[in-house]
Amino acid sequence: MKRFIQLLLLFFIIFMLYCENTSGNDKNVIRELLDINGLTNVEIDDIVFWKNGRIVELYTTDLHIVTIPDSINNLTSLKFAHFTNNLIKKIPDNFCDLKNLQGLHISGNPIEELPDCIGNLTNLQTITLYGHNIKKIPDSFLHLPHLTVVSFESMAINSVPKQLLNKQVQQLFISGYQLETIPDEIGTMENLESLTVKGIFNTIPESISHLKRLKSLTINGKGIKTIPAGIYDIIMLEELDLQRNDFEYLPEGISRLINLRDLKLSHNRLTALPSDVYTTTQWGKVIDGRKYDIDIRDNRICHVTAEQDAWLTKYVSKEWKIDQYCP
């Protein structure tokens, strides 16, 4: 028994020495990160969160960081890295050694490319990036096994990169001021539940109708005249945001979206609504704690029947007038 207690005490001492050593290593890494960026007055504990003697979260938002040191790979327990709104142009290859990393937030940096080794971040679940300079996504991005949330905004690209179409992703947000096309392959993202695409494209691929798990869909393009009727077969859809396009008409069948509770159609060129919209009576109500909204502002719906006018007055707006949205 005495021997067992001695061994247990020895193990405890070794463990404490290990924790002290690794904790010291983590501090050294953060101190280097701060010092090489001229942040000598910033305290380490002001930008990190510790757990069991190791750094698990790093917050460097708005610190004007330019350089990430190669020693970053020593933060082997790091799970969440926040580098939002800094001056970082390059992520070092050593960053890809952070096998426990789950969240990477690097929006608001002039990053030009992601390292080819990003596929080594096998536990990565979320990545957010806002950057005009990104033009290329590594092929390895497509194979990240646990990736669920991808947000790439204001990208200088013409088409949604196929490398982003990881089949594990559940939430995808992409925008670009030059974005002209959405690839057909987007229909292969079988786990997608939320999709937002914003750009200057003028067509929506029919393959979007294959996204049967989709609950939220936002499409903001330029020159889009209508949507594929197959979208109405995504019966799990709860939110459909088609604002600020050039829609002139919508196909019949929208009533098939039996779970739809939020329909945004404002700022288009619609002259009429699908007739089966008028058969729905849940708009404006709160059902099971959820409000059902329909927004058709700033269209060209000028000619409606008396029954449709009454419906619009009741469910869309108390100030509805037949000529309210006419040119």
Describe this structure in words.
This protein is α/β, with parallel strands linked by helices and 327 residues long. The protein is built from 2 helices and 14 strands; from the N terminus they run αββββββββββββββα. It folds into 2 domains: 16-147, Leucine-rich repeat, LRR (right-handed beta-alpha superhelix) (Alpha-Beta Horseshoe); 225-327, Leucine-rich repeat, LRR (right-handed beta-alpha superhelix) (Alpha-Beta Horseshoe). Strand 12 and strand 13 (290-291) form a beta hairpin. The chain is elongated. The termini are far apart.
Layout of helices and strands:
Blueprint: H1 2-35, E1 48-51, E2 54-59, E3 80-82, E4 103-105, E5 126-130, E6 149-153, E7 171-175, E8 194-198, E9 216-220, E10 239-241, E11 262-264, E12 286-287, E13 290-291, E14 293-295, H2 306-315
Question: Major β-sheet, in short?
Answer: 12 strands, mixed
Oligomeric assembly: single chain
Global shape: elongated
Radius of gyration: 26 Å
Major β-sheet strand ordering: 1-2-3-4-5-6-7-8-9-10-11-14
Tally of DSSP β-strands: 14
Instruction: Provide the CATH superfamily of the largest domain.
Output: Ribonuclease Inhibitor
**CATH topology of the largest domain, anyone?**
Leucine-rich repeat, LRR (right-handed beta-alpha superhelix)
Averaged pLDDT: 88
Which class best fits the helix and strand makeup?
A: alpha/beta
Spans of at least 5 consecutive residues whose pLDDT stays below 50 are 12-21
Helix residue percentage: 10-25%
Class of the largest domain, according to the CATH hierarchy?
Alpha Beta
Task: Specify the CATH architecture of the largest domain.
Answer: Alpha-Beta Horseshoe
- Report the sheet-strand fraction: 15-25%
What is the end-to-end distance? 92 Å
Helical stretch tally: 2
How many domains? 2
